[in-house]
Amino acid sequence: MPLIFITGGVRSGKSHFAEQAALQHYEAQSSTAKRLLYLASGIALDHEMEKRILRHQADRQAQPIQWLTVEAPYAISEVFETLRDGDVVLWDCVTTWLTNAFYEGYDKGTPCLQQPGCLANKLQVVKQAIQLLLKKDVTFFCCIQ
User: What is the pLDDT of residues 50-62, one digit of tens each?
Assistant: First the structure.
């Protein structure tokens, strides 16, 4: 399973670069690649993030091949279970997902960071998700800030 990490600062162009790289890989593997997936971790909690999400959606819609977009702000392990051998996957972005995990429950007054055992549980879930992912025959692109 090829795992490609794309790093850069906020608004450095890493999402666009990753989309192009995943798309090129998908096209090169067209006879064997099954699906082109975009795992979206962003949540539109403010106007700025809403604009960024809409821009990313428009960028993907303008491409010659249709992406299958999966909203994955929290339960990433459940998404990994649905991956099929031959998929080309872009996860945008790991850092956003991690922030979501830390602050999940904030809207109810108790973010995960303040709940006993919550972060340890999330770490265990992530480890299991990675172990599952390693058993899959997918090409996986990850954006990390």
Answer: 898 898 888 888 8
Please, are residues 77 and 125 in contact by the beta-carbon 8 Å criterion?
yes
For 121, the token pair is 């549980």
Query: What pLDDT digit, counting tens, does each position of 34-48 carry?
Result: 899 999 998 888 898
| Residue 117 to residue 56: CA distance in whole angstroms | 35
Other C-beta atoms closer than 10 Å to the C-beta of 12 total 13
Of the candidates 16, 25, 47, 56, the residue annotated as catalytic is: 56
Phi, psi of 105 (to 5 degrees): 100, -5
Specify the residue for token string 């602050």.
103
Farthest-apart Cα atoms in the chain, separation: 50
Q: Is 56 a catalytic residue?
A: yes
